């Protein structure tokens, strides 16, 4: 039995799994299970990993994944709430924080930087600190 070969296989298997997982926005259960199987199959036979460590890893992974999903849902809810509140600006006069852009709000939208008001002249005003609504 060549310990060097096992170590090499473990490194190659783990690095390819990590590369695959990093291409996704989140690590899913399939990737986690592949990593777990690779870890189990490449462990030292004279000093095997305790099964409670595997359970702890799975519990930690599940907790982190649930927190990511919760944060994503909260972000969506906050965006909907902000758009709903910004909807009340339609028909009102708005002036940007720098005073350069002003006009009657014709529409509101979610832009890359945040909620934007679109004036009747087609200009956009980012809603934020210093924006004046009359």
From TrEMBL:
Write down the superkingdom of origin: Bacteria
Q: Which Pfam families match?
A: FlgD
Keywords in alphabetical order: Bacterial flagellum biogenesis, Cell projection, Cilium, Flagellum
Q: Which GO terms describe its biological process?
A: bacterial-type flagellum organization
Query: According to its UniProt entry, what is the function of this protein?
Result: Required for flagellar hook formation. May act as a scaffolding protein.
Q: Which family does it belong to?
A: Belongs to the FlgD family.
NCBIfam families named among the record's database cross-references: PRK06009.1
Q: What is this protein called?
A: Basal-body rod modification protein FlgD
User: Which lineage ranks, top first, belong to the organism behind this chain?
Assistant: Bacteria, Pseudomonadati, Pseudomonadota, Alphaproteobacteria, Hyphomicrobiales
The record's gene field reads: flgD
